[in-house]
């Protein structure tokens, strides 16, 4: 089952094109720092604004670079069921280990619509599917009852929970009896999520602090709780830069992460046009916190 610190990878751009040289460097550095898996083409990877061909190539390149050293959970979701199936089938052919499928955004489907959407995708593939529940962005919240129904499908194996509701994993576990994977989608509550029965975090912060994020997860599994809490405190300054400033200034997740990587690793910071650039740039001193 998937666990630990799993970076939701940024997608670096240069001169209007994806910068695969920087993408390679990010992945190799993150692997050397102990990351337990990767998610290409998630929210942080700017998947809604990638072209179809860009999306496919990013997944291909991630799978190729990682080369089975850790799991690759490809973002394959769409509010178009047919497109989500196409992305998921491609991820399976590329050699990805699982698919992360977001609840359809903008359409505002009913709970019955969510069931039909995920059932159709699951039937199209043998890949394990992780539900991505992020009501703050998709404007639809998959209920625990709906998730329980979907968990009866053999290859729907877990959830990336970005509800920021720490009671949710406990309640879900009372409804889902099978071995189900619970991954946090909120860095600020990642450690607390483990205490509620979670197994890991699909993380934005792991782009810029992969060792701290992986160490925190490892220490928790080793039952060294105080040491894990110490690391979480160190990470809190990064959470502030990545998230609190975003909420105050309405900045997208990828912008500050890319700026931090620029300062620390001299990597591309360009983002696609519809995602507004980060107008308060973190300083080198903040990056070294």
Automatic annotation (TrEMBL):
Record text on subunit structure and interactions: Homotetramer; dimer of dimers.
Amino-acid biosynthesis recorded as keyword: yes
Taxonomic source organism: Marine Group I thaumarchaeote
EC nos: 4.3.3.7
Pathway recorded for this protein: Amino-acid biosynthesis; L-lysine biosynthesis via DAP pathway; (S)-tetrahydrodipicolinate from L-aspartate: step 3/4
Record-annotated site: Part of a proton relay during catalysis: 43, 106
Pfam families: DHDPS (PF00701)
Catalyzed reactions: L-aspartate 4-semialdehyde + pyruvate = (2S,4S)-4-hydroxy-2,3,4,5-tetrahydrodipicolinate + H2O + H(+)
GO terms for cellular component: cytosol
Protein name: 4-hydroxy-tetrahydrodipicolinate synthase
Entries under HAMAP family matching the protein: DapA
One GO term of the biological process aspect: diaminopimelate biosynthetic process
Function, in words: Catalyzes the condensation of (S)-aspartate-beta-semialdehyde [(S)-ASA] and pyruvate to 4-hydroxy-tetrahydrodipicolinate (HTPA).
Homology family: Belongs to the DapA family.
SUPFAM superfamilies named in the record: Aldolase (SSF51569)
SMART domains noted in UniProt: DHDPS
Chain sites annotated for binding pyruvate: 44, 202
Principal location class: cytoplasm
Cellular compartments annotated: Cytoplasm
GO terms for MF: 2-dehydro-3-deoxy-phosphogluconate aldolase activity; 4-hydroxy-tetrahydrodipicolinate synthase activity
Catalytic residues (UniProt): 132, 160
Keywords: Amino-acid biosynthesis, Cytoplasm, Diaminopimelate biosynthesis, Lyase, Lysine biosynthesis, Schiff base
């Amino acid at each position: 089952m998937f666990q630990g610190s799993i970076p939701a990878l940024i997608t670096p751009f240069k001169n209007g094109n994806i910068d695969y040289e920087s993408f390679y460097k990010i992945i190799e550095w993150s692997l050397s720092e102990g990351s337990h898996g990767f998610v290409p083409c998630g929210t942080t990877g700017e998947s809604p604004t990638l072209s179809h061909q860009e999306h496919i190539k990013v997944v291909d390149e991630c799978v190729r670079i990682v080369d089975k050293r850790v799991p690759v959970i490809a973002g394959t979701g769409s509010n178009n069921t047919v497109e989500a199936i196409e992305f998921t089938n491609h991820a399976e052919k590329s050699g990805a280990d699982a698919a992360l499928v977001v609840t359809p955004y903008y359409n505002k489907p009913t709970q019955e619509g969510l069931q039909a959407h995920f059932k159709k995708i699951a039937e199209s593939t043998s890949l394990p599917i992780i539900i991505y529940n992020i009501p703050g962005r998709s404007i639809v919240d998959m209920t625990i009852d709906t998730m329980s129904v979907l968990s009866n499908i053999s290859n729907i194996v877990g959830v990336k929970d970005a509800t920021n509701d720490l009671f949710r994993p406990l309640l879900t576990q009372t409804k889902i009896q099978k071995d189900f994977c619970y991954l946090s989608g909120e860095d600020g509550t990642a450690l607390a999520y483990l205490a509620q029965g979670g197994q890991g975090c699909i993380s934005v912060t792991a782009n810029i602090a992969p060792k701290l994020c992986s160490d925190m997860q490892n220490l928790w599994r080793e039952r060294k709780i105080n040491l894990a809490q110490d690391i979480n405190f160190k990470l809190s300054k990064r959470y502030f830069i990545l998230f609190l400033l975003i909420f105050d200034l309405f900045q997208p997740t990828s912008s500050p992460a890319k700026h931090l990587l620029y300062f620390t690793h001299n990597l591309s910071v360009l983002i696609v046009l519809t995602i507004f650039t980060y107008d308060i740039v973190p300083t080198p001193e903040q990056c070294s916190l």
